[in-house]
Amino acid sequence: MITILCSGSRGDFQPYIALAMELKKLGKDVRITGMREFESFVRGYGIDFYPIQADFKSLNVDEKMLQEASQADNPLKMLLTFNKMKKYGILIANEYYASCENNELIIYHPGCTMGYFAAEKLGIPSVLASPFPMHKTKERLSVISYGKSKSSPMRNLMSYSMLQGMLWLASKDAVVGYWKKEFGGLPKNFGKPYERHTDKKHPAVVSCSNFVFKRPSDWNENVHQKGYWFVDEIVDYTPSKELADFLDSGEKPVYIGFGSVFRAELKESMTKLIVDALAKAGKRGIICGMGKIENLPKNVIAIDSIPHSWLFERVAAVCHHGGAGTTSAGFKAGVPSIITPFSNDQFAWAHRAYDLGVGSKPIPIKELTSDKLAEALSYVEQGKIVANAKTLAKNIATENGARDCAKIIVDSLKR
């Protein structure tokens, strides 16, 4: 059995589902460990699941803290939020450790460092699997600084130290608390495990296209970046009649959705802003993930959650918060992006889309107006933006990150 330790929101689980599906194709028994609320979602792809029985409600997680996490728009705010979140990791450390027992290999998200130390204690190998580039390099800034600071070799290295430090801050106390309680001290060689890829038996794998951020030449040879980890949808999606009729009734609409970072109290003001912007730009639009919306004009429709892989290929552009998964789905679909980052690494993906010539200039959510959104909608109509988006999609299609990284993981076991 191979167990993958995950954390985060639904979108954070998707690349790991893709990796698990490829490992299964290679003949491996594999399961994902995570909060129980994601069990049906993961099992829906035929992947076994080890549920952490605690959840935000049973842990009595401060809702204000979760809101702060979704609004952390600079490294200091991110650091403070990660520091507040660490106490909740302590409460579920025993469950994450138990999920590592009786396995041949552990794969772990960088926020789940229990996986590294549990594997060491149990005498089995581990693989760091990151949903974004996080290993130190002099060649570019990390995803918490890209687009915000000027690049230089020293500044670049410092930005990765900060990124790794925040991830470590959020997870190390869980390891410390569990180890002291169960084993009477700290784990052997205790410290950040993110750069410990000294041989082919302990590789790291990264979900990112080399056409979006090229693999740095100064990375350790055992750090592998082969492309995005896209989920192979196992069933064809059938849209509602309302959505199918809307798509067929005019020019391609614009997708607008802000994922799990969207807050219900913004619904009324955000709906008005979006409707006004679409009217100013003369566009049709699909608003996703904001619930039922009454009295929309004929050029706008509201829908619930929908597979991005199905919808994005049928729209003219995608406007979203800049989550890594949503951004990569937009790139894969070959349509222009309008990114309105809320927090954390979303700013990096917004700036990268603009730098690649496949999107508009970033519009931080705090600065979003109907005029700015209308201008962005017109900007991404340009022929060069549309052509660049299609070219990027063709290049991304030449990679199969989940398959190639799964092969690397299985090969590491043979060694």
Q: Can you offer a commentary on this structure?
A:
The mean pLDDT is 89. Helices cover 43% and strands 12% of the residues. The protein has helices at residues 10-25, 39-43, 63-70, 75-100, 114-122, 153-183, 241-248, 267-281, 308-311, 324-333, 346-355, 370-379, 383-396, 401-414; strands at residues 2-5, 30-35, 48-52, 105-108, 126-130, 204-206, 223-225, 254-257, 285-288, 300-303, 317-320, 337-339. It is of the alpha/beta class. Helix 4 (75-100) packs parallel to helix 5. The chain is globular, with a radius of gyration of 21 Å. It contains 14 helices and 12 strands.
Task: Give me some keywords for this one.
5-stranded parallel beta sheet; 12% strand; alpha/beta; Rossmann fold; 12 strands; 14 helices; 415 residues
Strand content: 5-15%
Helix content: 40-55%
> Biggest sheet, in brief?
7 strands, parallel
What would the CATH topology of the largest domain be? Rossmann fold
Nutshell version of this structure?
This protein is α/β, with parallel strands linked by helices. Helix content is about 45%, strand content about 10%.
